[in-house]
Amino acid sequence: MSYPNYWFMSAIKNNLAELRRMIPPRVRIIAVSKTKSVADIQLAYDAGQRDFGENYVQEMLEKVPHLPSDIVWHAIGHLQTNKVKFVAPFIHYIHSVDSEKLLVELEKQAEKNNRIINCLLQFHIATEESKFGFRAHNYQEVLDQISWEGFPHLKIAGVMGMASFVENQKQLESEFNTLLNIFLDLKQRYFSNTESFKEVSMGMSADWPIAVEHGSTMVRIGSSIFGTR
Ligand SMILES: *Cc1c(COP(=O)(O)O)cnc(C)c1O
User: Fold this and answer.
1) N or C: which end of the chain has fewer CB within 10 A?
2) Which atom of ligand 1 is nearest to the CA of 228?
3) Closest ligand 1 atom to 30 CA
4) How far apart are CA 119 and CA 109, in angstroms?
5) Which residues line ligand 1 (CB under 6 A)?
């Protein structure tokens, strides 16, 4: 038997309302909808949410055509260069840019689609091993090699990072601080005249209050809006 789940419908709306009440308006809430249905995303949209984040290209391609065209789509998961051509026609923000190779491909596909794509540089700030993100200890050497003038169809909009999956407040504070300091350093080194370089994407369901306290401008929140995955 199937029937409308009224409890869940109001849950998404209520969760969003509560987050908007707690999170200062200068911080943009990205609703992370990976694994969630088009119907759930539509409920959040109907509650006024416009920024949505997805991790997987294939999943995004299946959902996007069924949803309103004024949604601002954020790609937040690792992006392979051979998948860029599929998202370039519609994506607004890529939070996971972590190589020059990816920047070059994004520029090529953005130009082909006659679009400007916002890019956030991802940094690895957590203690858990991960292949993704520029390394916090040597990023200057790597980023110094990149000619930032060479991407007219990209807006380098800021930085992104994921903290460790721990409850230790001090550790989380230290990791978010690391990302904020990288942001400030890059702003000064390469982007002092780039007005669009202003975003610090950090904070998820479990740790957003600490991230916001440490300078986050974009929080990526999934389970606290849509329920557990
Ligand atoms: C899944 C995911 C999130 C959201 O996680 P929640 O804990 O559900 O809020 C945020 N950022 C990234 C990169 C993710 O993969």
Assistant:
1) N
2) 8
3) 10
4) 13
5) 32, 34, 55, 76-77, 162, 204-206, 220-224
CA 4 to ligand 1 center in whole angstroms: 27
- Name the residue with the closest Cα to ligand 1, atom 7: 205
| Residue with CA closest to ligand 1 atom 13 | 76
Is residue 23 within 8 A of residue 219, CB to CB? The reply is yes
Query: b/e for 106-131, b at 16 or more Cβ within 10 A?
Result: bbbbbbebeeebbbbbbbbbbeeeee
- List, in order of start, the domains of the chain with CATH numbers: 5-223 (3.20.20.10)
DSSP-derived letter for residue 77 is S
- What does the pLDDT profile of the chain (229 residues) look like in tens digits? 455 555 556 899 999 999 999 999 999 999 999 999 999 999 999 999 999 999 999 999 999 999 999 999 999 999 999 999 999 999 999 999 999 999 999 999 999 999 999 999 999 999 998 889 999 989 999 999 999 999 999 999 999 999 999 999 999 999 999 999 999 999 999 999 999 999 999 999 999 999 999 999 999 999 999 999 9
Q: What backbone torsions phi and psi does residue 219 show, to the nearest 5 degrees?
A: -110, 140
CA of 132 to the centre of ligand 1 (A): 15
